[in-house]
Specification:
The chain is mainly alpha-helical and 151 residues long. Helices cover 75% and strands 0% of the residues. The protein contains six helices and no strands. Helix 1 crosses helix 4, helix 1 runs antiparallel to helix 6 and helix 5 runs antiparallel to helix 6. The two termini are 18 Å apart.
Length: 151
Amino acid sequence: MSKNSVLKIAFAGIAGGFVGNGILGALFSTPFIREVLYKPEWQSKLYIDLTPHRNIPISVAGLVVLSVVHSCFFNLLMPSIPGNTWVKKGLFWGTAICLMYWLFQEWFMFNSLLREPLLLCLLEMVLLFIGSIVEGVVIAFFLARKSKGGI
């Protein structure tokens, strides 16, 4: 087990959550992506009717809390995570986050329940992968990097 403190683990998760979700917010807010995801000829009516009504601040807060959980698991599993540098460990962890969380959500919620077309789910998965990679690398930066007296 790593010698990271609970405070450092929580901070890493909060930082990873804010940065990763900030990037996701920026990506999903671009006019091009919004136009593609909400184009009535391409998107399901259910998706168009429901997703604009999400409470974004509550959703982001929940995702940041979830990032703290990701940070706890990273800290616990860090010795067995592939990679000999914090960057490689972070890239692996970001990929794991994407595959374990976002892939399930996209398939179950958006494709199966909201009937989002597969190609639009794949577009979202690319964006979610980017955000997950950033989250994983930020968490690894704080928890796996060999620092000299820093956080």
